[in-house]
Design brief:
Length: 137
């Protein structure tokens, strides 16, 4: 059924299954208009930490895609970008956050699933490589 999935797709699916099982099926991903609350929290943390600028937020089923760029001139490595994105996600007011870097030749992509005992948010922070020429790969 899922034999053609990438390792990342299998890992993401497995993590969601574990979360559902752990919270005894009472947990759900927020997939309606209330997802804007997570985006607003994300933007507030970005403003506070001042290393990333959000360019656009797209809500597509089943996840939010946050397109961003790095505005801190001292961040010049993939590890530095990774650290910035992790800091933002870990400061959003949720009880847990799972974060997986999934980069490709076009962009640094960071899949996340975060939430509380009752609900969660799934998304991807995407930073196009062309938008961060200061970063050495």
């Amino acid at each position: 059924m899922f034999e053609n999935d990438t390792w990342a797709e299998r890992l993401q699916r497995t993590l969601k299954e574990v979360i559902y099982a752990f919270f005894q099926q009472k947990w759900h991903l927020v997939d309606d208009g209330s997802e804007k609350g997570f985006s607003i929290d994300f933007l507030d943390v970005v403003d506070m930490l001042k290393g990333i600028e959000v360019l656009r937020v797209d809500r597509t089923e089943p996840m939010t895609k946050i397109y961003a760029t790095v505005i801190d001139p001292d961040v010049n490595s993939v590890r530095g970008v990774h650290t910035l994105v992790h800091q933002v996600l870990s400061h959003v007011d949720e009880d847990f956050c799972i974060f997986i870097p999934l980069h490709n030749e076009e962009a640094l992509r960071f899949w996340y699933i975060t939430g509380t005992a009752s609900h969660g948010h799934e998304g991807m922070v995407i930073i196009k490589r062309a938008d961060i020429p200061q970063v050495v790969y």
